[in-house]
Amino acid sequence: KNHLRGWYLDMARELAEEEAAKVDSDYEALYNFAVSLHKHGDHNNALRLLKRYLAKKSDLEENANIAAVYFQMGSVYISMGEYDQAFQMFEKDLHITLVTSGEQHPDTATTYNDMGLTYEGKGEHDKALRMYEKALQ
């Protein structure tokens, strides 16, 4: 079963790479594939694709899609135990989300929550609690 899963992921990676090379404007497919890789534990390749997404979109203004990429990168870094990197991504996400959606938007609360998870992972429980409280406001 694990052999088939590995084969499937390898084939999916190859196909995604081929398609991404053909269609530079298909950002959503690139993002979705990165999310799938993260869910399957392939964190390094997920990060690589998310960074590629950002590189392709670097000429565009900050918007909710860019915030989502930073949020996803933060989630990947949490999974890898790289809490400082995760927090940096969540800060970027939060900045964009506050500008584009405001303090009361559910995405803002989600980001505060995951910032709390980051502090929790670092053992900074008081800071985590403050983030969780912000998420509930």
Task: Give the tags.
7 helices, 0% strand, mainly alpha, 80% helix
Based on CA atoms alone, the radius of gyration comes out at 16 Å
Outline the biggest β-sheet.
none
Kindly state the mean pLDDT as a whole number? 85
The total strand number stands at 0
Helix coverage percent: over 70%
Outline: globular
Query: What class would the helix/strand composition place it in?
Result: mainly alpha
Residue share in β-strands: under 5%
Low-pLDDT regions: none
Report how far apart the termini are: 45 Å
| Helix and strand pattern | HHHHHHH
Count of DSSP-assigned helices: 7
Explained architecture:
This protein is mainly alpha-helical and 137 residues long. 80% of the residues lie in helices and 0% in strands. It is built from seven helices and no strands. Helix 4 (64-79) runs antiparallel to helix 5, helix 4 packs parallel to helix 6 and helix 5 runs antiparallel to helix 6.
In short:
The chain is an all-alpha fold. 80% of the residues lie in helices and 0% in strands. The chain has helices spanning 2-22, 27-39, 43-56, 64-79, 83-100, 106-121, 125-136.
